[in-house]
Design goal:
The protein is α+β, with helices and mostly antiparallel strands. The protein is 40% helix and 18% strand. It has nine helices and twelve strands. A hairpin with a 2-residue loop joins strand 8 and strand 9.
Length: 312
C-alpha cells in the first residue's frame, strides 16, 4: 500500500447552506455497498462485527483532555474494526470539511478534525468512525469508483459494521439550524442500521441521544422491513402477491423471454430450457438469487447464508 490518498468528510452544520436532504436518494448504492462488504469479508468476516461499538467507548467528557480523549476514542475505533497495527494521530484545525484522513502505507494514519469539534466533543466519535473506516476499506482494497459512491460505501460500512450509529446520532435538526455528518441521509443511515439489527438481533435505538436520529432510524427501519415483504418472499402482502401471480402467468405464456415488470421491480422471470425461474435480491445482502418457480419453497442465499421462505 504505497499510495497515499486523502479523504474528507462532509462539512458540519447546515448541508450546503440549506436544509438537510432526507429520504433514500442513494439506496441503490447503499445496497451495492452491503453486497460488496459480504463479498469482501465473507459471511464469517461479517459475523466478527456482531457487537456494536459501545456508547461508553465513544463518550467524551468536558473535563477530558481534548487530544488524549480523541486518541482514546480513535483507539477504540481501531479495536472495534479489527485494525491491530493501526495508530491514529488526531489533530484539530480550521477546515471546510468535518474531518479528513491521509491514507498511506501505515501503520500510522493522520486524522484532522474540524476545530468545531473542540467545543462539540460529543460528535468526535462520529467523525472518527467515518475516517477510521476509510483505513479498513483501504486495507481491504475495497472501493467504489468516484468520490461520491466511495464515500457512500464508507458510511454504509461504518454503520453495518457497528460503529456508524454514531454518525446518525450526530444528526440534529430544528427550525433554525441543522447538523449532519457523512454522505448518507439520516433515513439511509437508519436503513443500514436496521439491516444490521435484523442480522444480529440488535436494537441501536437506546443509544441515540438525538430525537431526530431516532425518528430517522424508525423511517429507515420501515424501509428495510419492506425489503423482507416483497414477492416472491412468502411474507409479501396481498397486493404484491396478486401482481406477482399476474406477471408469472404472463411469463409462463411467453416462453423464451426474460420478463421484468419494470426497472425498479424486485424480481424478474426467465423462461428457458429448464423451465420458468425467478430472480430476486436477497433482503439481507442484496445479492441476486435465482430459483425455479414451483410454489412454496425455501431458498438459501449463498453469500450471507440467509434462509428465505418463498412462494414462487
Amino acid at each position: 500500500m504505497a499510495d497515499s490518498r486523502r479523504y474528507s468528510n462532509q462539512e458540519p452544520g447546515r448541508s450546503g447552506g440549506g436544509p438537510v436532504v432526507h429520504g433514500f436518494p442513494h439506496l441503490d448504492t447503499v445496497r451495492s455497498a452491503i453486497t460488496a462488504l459480504y463479498r469482501r469479508l465473507s459471511y464469517d468476516g461479517i459475523r466478527g462485527y456482531a457487537t456494536s461499538l459501545a456508547p461508553a467507548d465513544a463518550a467524551f467528557g468536558d473535563e477530558e483532555d481534548l487530544h488524549l480523549g480523541a486518541q482514546r476514542v480513535a483507539a477504540a475505533m481501531v479495536r472495534h474494526l479489527h485494525l491491530p497495527e493501526a495508530r491514529m494521530i488526531v489533530a484539530f484545525r480550521a477546515m471546510e470539511h468535518a474531518a479528513g484522513i491521509e491514507l498511506a502505507a501505515g501503520p500510522e494514519y493522520f486524522i484532522e478534525l474540524n476545530d468545531r469539534f473542540r467545543t462539540h466533543r460529543r460528535d468526535i466519535g462520529a467523525a472518527l468512525s467515518h475516517e477510521v473506516m476509510h483505513v479498513l476499506l483501504h486495507r481491504l482494497g475495497l472501493e467504489f469508483p468516484g468520490t461520491r459512491d466511495n464515500e457512500i460505501l464508507t458510511d454504509t460500512a461504518a454503520a453495518y459494521l457497528g460503529a456508524g450509529w454514531l454518525l446518525l446520532d450526530a444528526f440534529r435538526e430544528d427550525a433554525v439550524s441543522s447538523q449532519k455528518l457523512g454522505y448518507l441521509t439520516p433515513e439511509e443511515f437508519g436503513y443500514v442500521l436496521a439491516k444490521r439489527a435484523f442480522v444480529f438481533d440488535e436494537d441501536p435505538s437506546p443509544w441515540f441521544t438525538s430525537p431526530q436520529a431516532y425518528t430517522a432510524y424508525t423511517r429507515g427501519r420501515a424501509r428495510a422491513l419492506d425489503d423482507t415483504r416483497r414477492p416472491p418472499l412468502a411474507a409479501a402482502g396481498w397486493a404484491g402477491r396478486r401482481r406477482y401471480a399476474r406477471e408469472r402467468r404472463y411469463a409462463t405464456d411467453h416462453p423464451g423471454t426474460r420478463t421484468a415488470p419494470g426497472p425498479d421491480a424486485p424480481y424478474a422471470f426467465e423462461n428457458g430450457p429448464q423451465g420458468l425461474r425467478v430472480s430476486f435480491a436477497c433482503p439481507t445482502c442484496h445479492q441476486r438469487i435465482r430459483v425455479p418457480v414451483r410454489g412454496r419453497m425455501r431458498a438459501r442465499c449463498g453469500l450471507c447464508r440467509t434462509v428465505l421462505d418463498c412462494s414462487t
